[in-house]
User: Fold this.
Amino acid sequence: MLFTASSNDFQSMPFNLWILIHSILSLNGVSNLIYYTKKGQWEGSLKVYSEDKLARDIRDIVKREYYDYDITSVQEIETFDSYGIPTYIVHLEDSNNIKLIRVRYGVMDVYSAFKKG
Assistant:
């Protein structure tokens, strides 16, 4: 599914709510959201997918430490400020915990952690 909007569609929106998502595309199990500035310049992209689509090197970094956790989803984020180099937010779960692991420039850290129930 592809969605494209013109700037005329959003003229009545307040500036801080001005649309940044230009297109949404889902293909082969990967959802892509592409963000643009008000002037139409690329601001960033977000891809959401499952473990089987995750790059092997990123998966290996995460699974080396969190081998007992299941990877439930992945967010791959690229921004203008990161010069298009992706940051990965890997969603992990085990029976008691949910963790969001950030992998950026090959370095992993815990972005968020929650206890279940």
Notes: Strands lie at 21-27, 30-36, 42-49, 70-79, 87-93, 97-104, 107-115. The CA atoms of residues 19 and 69 lie 36 Å apart.
